[in-house]
Fold this sequence. Notes:
By secondary structure, the protein is α+β, with helices and mostly antiparallel strands. It has helices at about 20-25, 80-90, 200-225; strands spanning about 45-50, 55-60, 70-80, 100-110, 115-120, 130-140, 150-155, 165-170, 170-180, 185-195.
Amino acid sequence: MTKTRRPGLTVCLLALTLALPTAVFAAADDDDSDLAELQPKLGNEWVPVKNDRRRGIKTWVKQEDGKRYRSFKVEAALKGRLSDFVRTVLDFENYPRWYWEVMDVKLLRRISPTEYQLYMKHRAPHSVPNRDVPALLRIEPQTATNRTLTVAVRAIPDLVPEHPPFIRMRAEDMIIRVTPIDRETLRLEAEGYVDPGGKAPNWAINFIQRSAPYMIVLGSQRVMESGDFGKQKIPFPVFEYGD
């Protein structure tokens, strides 16, 4: 049974029990239309999965040519300052508090102030082996003419040796773009793709692809609202709304 997370952003995006969809998505004021499950075959067009009007989070999926599994997209309005979002992303040791089913995360190498190599372990759904993934996290800071900050995560499966019994993920890729739209609100837009590697039942893969993006955004919002993130100095310029 997955432990209850303390309120608290990284996703992760990434509570992985069969009861979770009921516990999280059954709010009466949410328009939770799982249209993807009604599609006989997804194509290259985005299909809406969830529209949480109260929290301002929308998600979509599609099946791209040449990929084994669904890609996902998220749009959200986050309450908070961009500097808080960045500190949350850079507070790697606290990822298990908000990112999708992270059991552990290690910083392997700080390449530069905007590039980091990470190693993450993920809990998998019941009866499915847990996963691990080395990844590169790269941040593209804002500029004087472009106030959107971009966070890109890309799996590098062969960066470190495999660690059985963990199954090495082949992809955990995501591009997140965050833009201040007023003094208290950020616009978040993200697209990504996950390949869990090895063998996994379709129900588990579909559940993760459907649920993880929403839960990552929701978790990041809770961390930002709580203020429980790293207080370290941000190693590159961050422009808030109006700067």
